[in-house]
């Protein structure tokens, strides 16, 4: 019986460790999702600024 209880406690310890790691991963993903629109907007803004500079100078990087 003691060995069985020891095994259950060990499994519980491992499960708690996996649970904590999963919580950290969830928090990281949620943060990344929350920041995603900000990154996309900043990229669009940068592309717009680059487009304005190209049209002002008459130089296009793609050519």
TrEMBL record:
<feature type="coiled-coil region">
    <location>
        <begin position="2"/>
        <end position="32"/>
    </location>
</feature>
<protein>
    <submittedName>
        <fullName>Uncharacterized protein</fullName>
    </submittedName>
</protein>
<feature type="region of interest" description="Disordered">
    <location>
        <begin position="44"/>
        <end position="63"/>
    </location>
</feature>
<keyword id="KW-0175">Coiled coil</keyword>
<feature type="compositionally biased region" description="Polar residues">
    <location>
        <begin position="52"/>
        <end position="63"/>
    </location>
</feature>
């Amino acid at each position: 019986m003691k060995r069985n209880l020891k095994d259950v406690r060990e499994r519980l310890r491992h499960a708690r460790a996996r649970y904590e790691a999963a919580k950290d991963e969830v928090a990281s993903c949620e943060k990344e999702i929350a920041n995603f629109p900000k990154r996309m907007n900043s990229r669009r803004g940068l592309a717009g600024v680059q487009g304005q500079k190209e049209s002002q100078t008459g130089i296009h990087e793609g050519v």
